Amino acid sequence: MLRCWSLGIVVHSVVIGLSLGASNNTCTIKPLVAALCFHQMFEGMGLGGCILQAEYKFFKKAVMVFFF
Description:
The protein has helices at about 1-20, 25-55, 60-65. It is mostly helical and about 70 residues long.
């Protein structure tokens, strides 16, 4: 279950980053950056807690953190 959830978070983060990068209007970019930072902070805390509970080895944890 954690793998599917983690993959969903990675894909979600990539889509948000692409939408931010594709935006040309500064009125759109500023709110997107604020929302992205706030959203990713809580997403990262949730994913970090799940990774710690799953007790993966260091390499697997490092790969997951890198892709997030």
